[in-house]
Amino acid sequence: MPRRARILSRAAGLRAYFEEAGARPVETPVLQPAETLLDLYGEDIRGRAYVTWDALRGELMLRPDFTVPVVQMHMTHGAEPARYTYSGEVFRRQEHDPDRDNEYIQVGYEVFDRADPAAADAEVFTLIAGTLSGLHLRAATGDIGILMAAVAGLETTGARKSALMRHIWRPRRFRALLDRYSGRAPVPGARAALLASADPMAGAGPQIGLRSRADIEARIEALRADAAAPPISEREMTALEALLAVRETLPFALEHLRDVAVDLPQITPALDRLEARIAALAARGVDVEHLEFEASYGRTSMEYYDGFVFGFYAATRADLPPVATGGRYDALTRALGDGSEIPAVGGVLRPGVMLTLEEAAQ
């Protein structure tokens, strides 16, 4: 049987497995409106997606994933609670890694249920883990919500917290902002000179570009306000660094994070949710004593997740993408819900990678 046919057959089997678990199969268009994705992720998405143009429908993107259209569908006319499954092609540009597939089959399982978020997290994780038995994979977990709670509660300006929130998924930029806001890094010379000038617009050349003079002046005032704000304290910076460094098995990670919460008490509700999730996973038979937890996990590839995140990897094949990933995306339902929201969690699998591992083991 040709390889593509075997991948499609495996995808059909995975979708049937999720249907047996109570999911309703759904389809989404391959061409997605670019406006929605750009509103969610900004212009960065153009570097990862294939963009085209239609005279009637405007700018479109080849489907980079299923989650966004499934959330849109559910928030428009879905009943509660709901479970969905799907399979089909997704398209990702791989200009920085030409060995990775830019078109592949994805199978997913999504849960929209407000009754017990911890139980839903455990349900998705264990169902996906059940499809992967025998592949000898490494499981990793994290929780973006803990870092988000830490940032939201910092004793600094709203503008600084908003900037940090936007860059949580860009660790280098996030770190650079923290260093600047804490005073650990000096203000760039050009900015310092601009702020020191009584009239930064004096002697400016002709206006070029889309920004108006008022926009530029507002930006300068925002920079002045930021420069006048007190630095983030060393106490909070040390606690944030301790949080980001946590990499333990789940029970020890929770214990360590409880210690961090002494200096960052705003993360306590997120830690209570983590504790409930650990109990829910254990109730479903997961060996939580040996399940890895990393506080920074998911920060480079999971932009719409805002809570629990997980992935399954081939420990001996670093050249392969993750076999499965997933997580909680409550904020995405709020962004696409036109005023309504519902707790939601899901995960996706790559049947092609599963077959590659099975073939290598034969």
UniProtKB/TrEMBL annotation:
It comes from the Bacteria. InterPro entries: aa-tRNA-synth_II, aa-tRNA-synth_II/BPL/LPL, HisRS-like_core, HisRS/HisZ. Residues 14-351 form the Aminoacyl-transfer RNA synthetases class-II family profile domain. One of its GO terms (biological process) is histidyl-tRNA aminoacylation. L-histidine binds at D65, F66, T67, R92, Q106, E110, R299, Y304, Y305. Keywords: Glycosyltransferase, Transferase. GO terms for cellular component: cytoplasm. PROSITE patterns: AA_TRNA_LIGASE_II. Pfam families: tRNA-synt_His. One of its GO terms (molecular function) is histidine-tRNA ligase activity. Homodimer. NCBIfam families: PRK12295.1-5. This is Histidine--tRNA ligase. It comes from Antarcticimicrobium luteum.
